[in-house]
Amino acid sequence: MPVLQIGETSIDYTIRYSKRSKRQRIIVSFKGVEVVAPINTPEELITNFVDSKKCWLFKTVTETIIKYPPKLPQRYINGAEIMYRGSYFILKIEPADVEKVIIKYENCFDIQVPQYLSGNEQEAAIKQALIDWKREQVYFEIQQFAQIYVKKLNIQPKSIKLSQQKRAWGTCSSKGSIRINWRLADASLSVLEYVIAHELTHLLHHNHSKDFWQALGDIMPDYKQRKADLKAWELELPLL
């Protein structure tokens, strides 16, 4: 990953080449720094462009860090709270005579964990078990919502699968394959529903044209509010 050095401060950034871009630009967000450049832009030109913006970058990155302080990794210990369906729920963990982690959910997460595991092993096992559990739950919810909007749009996706991309909550390939990020298990059901409807609408309009938004609005009149809710939730989402 390229790095811009400003005094003792190092700013990492990624480069994304775009067919639509006619000039270079820099995007600074809580996710990091991204340079968007036209296809085939020489790396030297990108480096010079970033260097020419170093004063602005230093100021903007500093303000972003203050506004969105780095998130601490999620803990998976007794009494900790984890996000699920847009809310936080307490973990109630009990070592037990079991061979694997057992999860029961009803207003909190009651978890039995093999008593022979050490502290670090126990936390790692609970983390993985919760990830597996959430993936299973959200996959079922995705299929249910998809059935509704497949009928409304009168379309048929080639497949609908889970993904774990860092930069996209959902994708629709040119061949009609839909992928939904499993971390939407932590979003409200209305946000999950929005992402599914959004991606399925791309089977009709594989872009974000006026026709696309009109088609989405026809099946989901409140999509603008749900889109805003997605962005708000994204800021709150903790690290795994």
Give a structural overview:
This protein is of the alpha/beta class. It is 40% helix and 26% strand. The strands form 3 sheets. The chain has a 4-stranded mixed β-sheet with strand order 1-2-4-3, with helices on one face. A 4-stranded mixed β-sheet has the order 5-6-8-7, covered by helices on one side. Strand 10 and strand 11 form a beta hairpin. Helix 3 crosses helix 4 and helix 4 packs across helix 6. The longest helix has 35 residues. The chain starts with a strand and ends with a helix.
Describe the secondary-structure layout.
Layout: E1 3-6, E2 9-18, E3 25-29, E4 32-38, H1 43-52, H2 54-67, E5 81-84, E6 87-96, E7 102-105, E8 109-114, H3 119-153, E9 159-163, E10 170-172, E11 177-181, H4 189-201, H5 210-219, H6 223-236
Parallel strand pairs: 2-4, 6-8, 9-11
Antiparallel strand pairs: 1-2, 3-4, 5-6, 7-8, 10-11
